[in-house]
Design brief:
Oligomer: single chain
Strand content: 35-45%
Number of helices: 2
Number of domains: 2
Distance between the termini: 45 Å
Largest sheet: 2 strands, antiparallel
Radius of gyration: 15 Å
Strand order of the largest sheet: 1-2
Structural class: alpha+beta
Helix content: 25-40%
Shape: globular
Length: 116
Protein backbone atom coordinates (compact mmCIF):
# COMPACT_ATOMS: atom_id res chain seq x y z
CA UNK A 1 0.00 0.00 0.00
CA UNK A 2 1.27 3.45 -0.89
CA UNK A 3 1.91 5.90 1.92
CA UNK A 4 0.94 9.51 1.22
CA UNK A 5 2.76 12.60 2.44
CA UNK A 6 1.32 14.95 5.04
CA UNK A 7 3.47 17.84 3.82
CA UNK A 8 4.25 17.44 0.10
CA UNK A 9 1.70 17.88 -2.67
CA UNK A 10 1.51 17.68 -6.45
CA UNK A 11 0.74 20.72 -8.57
CA UNK A 12 -2.89 19.53 -8.53
CA UNK A 13 -2.88 19.60 -4.71
CA UNK A 14 -2.79 15.83 -4.20
CA UNK A 15 -0.48 14.34 -1.53
CA UNK A 16 2.65 12.78 -3.00
CA UNK A 17 3.53 9.14 -2.40
CA UNK A 18 6.49 8.82 -0.03
CA UNK A 19 9.24 6.22 0.10
CA UNK A 20 11.70 5.72 2.94
CA UNK A 21 14.73 5.04 0.74
CA UNK A 22 16.15 5.54 -2.72
CA UNK A 23 15.89 1.78 -3.25
CA UNK A 24 12.15 1.71 -2.43
CA UNK A 25 11.51 4.77 -4.58
CA UNK A 26 13.40 3.21 -7.50
CA UNK A 27 11.28 0.05 -7.14
CA UNK A 28 8.15 2.25 -7.25
CA UNK A 29 9.42 4.07 -10.32
CA UNK A 30 10.31 0.80 -12.07
CA UNK A 31 6.82 -0.57 -11.39
CA UNK A 32 5.04 2.60 -12.58
CA UNK A 33 7.26 2.83 -15.66
CA UNK A 34 6.44 -0.79 -16.64
CA UNK A 35 2.76 -0.81 -15.67
CA UNK A 36 1.76 2.63 -16.91
CA UNK A 37 4.42 3.37 -19.53
CA UNK A 38 5.72 6.30 -17.47
CA UNK A 39 9.22 7.74 -17.30
CA UNK A 40 9.47 8.44 -13.55
CA UNK A 41 12.60 8.84 -11.45
CA UNK A 42 13.09 9.10 -7.68
CA UNK A 43 14.34 12.20 -5.89
CA UNK A 44 15.02 13.01 -2.26
CA UNK A 45 12.73 15.78 -1.08
CA UNK A 46 14.39 18.76 0.59
CA UNK A 47 11.16 19.54 2.45
CA UNK A 48 10.36 16.21 4.14
CA UNK A 49 13.63 14.29 3.74
CA UNK A 50 11.85 11.29 2.18
CA UNK A 51 11.72 10.14 -1.45
CA UNK A 52 9.12 10.95 -4.11
CA UNK A 53 8.81 10.28 -7.85
CA UNK A 54 8.66 12.79 -10.66
CA UNK A 55 8.80 12.63 -14.45
CA UNK A 56 12.40 12.24 -15.61
CA UNK A 57 12.11 15.31 -17.85
CA UNK A 58 11.27 17.49 -14.81
CA UNK A 59 14.33 16.44 -12.81
CA UNK A 60 16.49 19.44 -11.90
CA UNK A 61 18.73 18.34 -9.04
CA UNK A 62 19.22 20.97 -6.36
CA UNK A 63 20.02 21.41 -2.69
CA UNK A 64 19.24 24.27 -0.34
CA UNK A 65 21.84 27.02 -0.18
CA UNK A 66 22.70 27.66 3.48
CA UNK A 67 23.55 31.32 2.83
CA UNK A 68 21.51 32.87 0.00
CA UNK A 69 17.92 33.95 0.73
CA UNK A 70 15.03 34.95 -1.49
CA UNK A 71 12.89 38.05 -1.03
CA UNK A 72 10.59 36.17 1.38
CA UNK A 73 13.43 35.13 3.69
CA UNK A 74 13.64 31.51 2.54
CA UNK A 75 16.90 29.83 1.59
CA UNK A 76 17.29 29.57 -2.18
CA UNK A 77 17.57 26.37 -4.17
CA UNK A 78 21.12 25.73 -5.33
CA UNK A 79 21.15 23.95 -8.70
CA UNK A 80 24.16 21.73 -9.30
CA UNK A 81 24.64 22.84 -12.89
CA UNK A 82 23.83 25.77 -15.13
CA UNK A 83 21.85 23.37 -17.34
CA UNK A 84 19.67 22.25 -14.39
CA UNK A 85 18.94 25.87 -13.45
CA UNK A 86 18.08 26.72 -17.07
CA UNK A 87 15.81 23.68 -17.26
CA UNK A 88 13.96 24.77 -14.08
CA UNK A 89 13.56 28.29 -15.54
CA UNK A 90 12.05 26.80 -18.72
CA UNK A 91 9.65 24.59 -16.71
CA UNK A 92 8.47 27.53 -14.58
CA UNK A 93 8.04 29.74 -17.65
CA UNK A 94 5.94 27.09 -19.40
CA UNK A 95 3.84 26.05 -16.41
CA UNK A 96 3.45 29.30 -14.49
CA UNK A 97 4.33 32.03 -16.99
CA UNK A 98 7.11 33.25 -14.69
CA UNK A 99 10.15 34.87 -16.29
CA UNK A 100 13.32 34.17 -14.35
CA UNK A 101 17.05 34.43 -14.87
CA UNK A 102 19.94 32.51 -13.37
CA UNK A 103 23.22 33.48 -11.72
CA UNK A 104 26.18 31.69 -10.18
CA UNK A 105 26.07 31.48 -6.38
CA UNK A 106 28.83 33.69 -4.96
CA UNK A 107 29.35 31.31 -2.01
CA UNK A 108 28.94 27.76 -3.33
CA UNK A 109 29.45 25.75 -6.49
CA UNK A 110 26.03 26.06 -8.10
CA UNK A 111 23.38 28.31 -9.62
CA UNK A 112 20.36 30.24 -8.32
CA UNK A 113 17.20 31.58 -9.97
CA UNK A 114 16.35 35.27 -9.86
CA UNK A 115 13.41 37.47 -10.80
CA UNK A 116 15.77 40.30 -11.73
Amino acid sequence: MNRKSNSCYSRRGEPLTVYDSDFQAQEGADYANRAYDNNLAPYKCEKCGLWHLSPQDRQTPSTTCPICMDGNGYHKALYRSKAAAEKRVAILRKEEGVRLGIYRCPYHDGWHLTKK
